[in-house]
Specification:
The structure is a single chain. By secondary structure, the chain is α/β, with parallel strands linked by helices. Helix 1 (27-38) links the parallel strand 1 and strand 2 (43-47). It is built from eleven helices and 14 strands. The strands form four sheets. A seven-stranded parallel β-sheet has the order 3-2-1-4-5-6-11, with helices on both faces. Strands 12-9-14 form a three-stranded mixed β-sheet. Strands 7-10 form a two-stranded parallel ribbon. It has a domain at 17-198 and 250-278: Rossmann fold (3-Layer(aba) Sandwich). Helix 1 runs parallel beside helix 2, helix 5 packs parallel to helix 6 (164-182) and helix 7 (216-224) packs parallel to helix 9. Bound molecules: nicotinamide-adenine-dinucleotide and uridine-diphosphate-N-acetylglucosamine (UD1). Pathway: Carbohydrate metabolism; galactose metabolism.
């Protein structure tokens, strides 16, 4: 076993191996880095800051009262990775680094295949070279395509994605499966996230999208703060209880805890393990608007618009496998997700640049 479990006390002095977190300055990576530090792990973050700011990591250190090592660099830089693995005793990698904007992936597919697929292949080559075989990968519920029924369990088939972003996730999942078949030393977790929202309760770290957000939660909170005029509700004629799209929104802190559980689990397993990280509850767009209005005390101006191409009607997880095998479940409800998002948005109207 290469992952050293941290001591139960707050001290981490006797941990010899470290966790490499790629993309750790980003939204989910920064919250997970915080959870790792709080649990007593030593953390090295590798991030090229294309979609983030090193300020998130300064704040992670502030909140935790612990230090981490930050390397600004690219997962496609093999020399840098080899240097990292040679100079540090790394026990496992949490791999968040990648591009994630669906619309942009249609316009710039090469960027997506390069950052996501080439980056992941490069990382695995460097890991194999360094004999580090524990990997937790950030996948997405998008790999299920348009499932026939809800909730979605891990046994559901994957489907041809409708955009290059989704395609990269499926390709990476597939090659990780091949890799694990080729060498039994690999122990890999594919974590299929549903819809991450929320922020740390301190209001110091949260989601800070570049430019106009594409996703519902950051868009809505920017409407509430007055940065955007109105929210477009994409379609009211879906076969759902109120006609708007239904998703499984999960608090980013629950998601971060899920990574720690997965990290622990893979140290006792080999091969590829797939876990859905969701709450098992679906909320509609209109329900989310109402919950956000209640939590923030702000009215969210919205207009009904056409369906967004590529959207599915509903998508929520069966989280039973993660509960049974990881002993993990999401604990935070919708009100907490909305309250924490609003606290972060109010305190940081310009994200980390403010
Ligand atoms: P994010 O953009 O906030 O974080 C990704 C981080 O990776 C950024 O800090 C970025 O600078 C960095 N990065 C990108 N390319 C890199 C490269 N080549 N080398 C080094 N660093 C690089 O995104 P996030 O929301 O935190 O998502 C993290 C991961 O989870 C991504 O792989 C994403 O596809 C996946 N995911 C996210 C969601 C979501 O809704 N946020 C849902 C499902 C899956
Ligand atoms: C989207 C991506 C998905 C990706 C995920 C996380 C698409 C088609 N899917 O998921 O691949 O893994 O983000 O990055 O882009 N909505 C509005 N108005 C808005 C924005 C969204 O009504 O301005 C609705 C959508 O129609 C959907 C729901 O809100 O019903 C959630 O949308 P969003 O936050 O973009 O997430 P997904 O579409 O689920």
């Amino acid at each position: 076993m290469l992952i050293n479990t941290p001591p139960s006390s707050d001290q981490n002095s006797n941990i010899t191996s470290k966790i490499l977190v790629t993309g750790g300055a980003g939204y989910i990576g920064s919250h997970t880095t915080l959870a790792l530090l709080n649990a007593g792990f030593n953390v090295i973050v590798l991030d090229n800051l294309t979609n983030s700011s090193a300020e998130s990591l300064s704040r992670v250190q502030r909140i935790s009262g612990k230090t981490l090592e930050f390397i600004q660099g690219d997962v496609r830089d093999r020399k840098l990775l080899d240097h990292l693995f040679t100079t540090h005793s790394i026990g496992a990698v949490l791999h968040f680094a990648g591009l994630k904007a669906v619309g942009e992936s249609v316009v710039k597919p090469l960027d997506y295949f390069s950052n996501n697929v080439v980056g992941s292949v490069n990382l695995c080559e460097a890991m194999a070279h360094a004999q580090v075989f524990n990997l937790v990968f950030s996948s997405s519920a998008t790999v299920y395509g348009t499932p026939k029924e809800m909730p979605i369990s891990e046994s559901f088939p994957t489907a041809e994605p409708t955009n290059p972003y989704g395609h990269t996730k499926l390709i990476i999942e597939d090659f990780l499966q091949s890799l694990a078949k080729s060498d039994p030393r690999w122990s890999i977790a594919l974590l299929r996230y549903f819809n991450p929202v929320g922020a740390h309760q301190s209001g110091l770290i949260g989601e800070a999208p570049n430019g106009t957000p594409n996703n519902l939660m950051p868009y809505m909170s920017q409407v509430a703060i007055g940065k955007l005029k109105f929210l477009s509700v994409f379609g009211t004629d879906y076969p759902t209880h109120d006609g708007t799209g239904v998703r499984d929104y999960i608090h980013v802190l629950d998601l971060a805890d899920g990574h720690l559980s997965a990290l622990k689990a893979i140290s006792n397993r080999t091969g590829v393990n797939i876990w859905n990280l969701g709450t098992g509850i679906g909320y509609s767009v209109l329900e989310l608007i109402r919950a956000f209005e209640l939590a923030s005390g702000q009215a969210v101006t919205y207009q009904i618009a056409e369906r967004r191409p590529g959207d599915i009607a509903e998508c929520w997880a069966d989280p039973t496998k993660a509960a049974d095998e990881l002993g993990w479940k999401a604990n935070r409800g919708l009100t907490e997700m909305m309250t924490d998002t609003w606290r972060w948005q109010q305190a940081n109207p310009e994200g980390y640049g403010g």
